[in-house]
What we know:
By secondary structure, this protein is of the alpha/beta class.
Amino acid sequence: MKLFCGIVLQKDDINITVIDEGQNEVVNKNVPKEASQVITVLSPHRGELQSIVMEADKDPEWLIDALKADGFTNVHAVR
């Protein structure tokens, strides 16, 4: 199954939403603002994730770098 992830970097936490091809929600979770927390949530879906798109007002590079270092691909930011 193909999955798609949207991440919103908020002031105090991070919202992670994963949907499938039919736009059914697979994950919707808020986690502390730590890369390890995001990786923990996404790891079970690693093989199925087609892309990770991140929305952030401030610089999201720290999280993009951490996800790429952990082997996630197709990680992008939008502002």
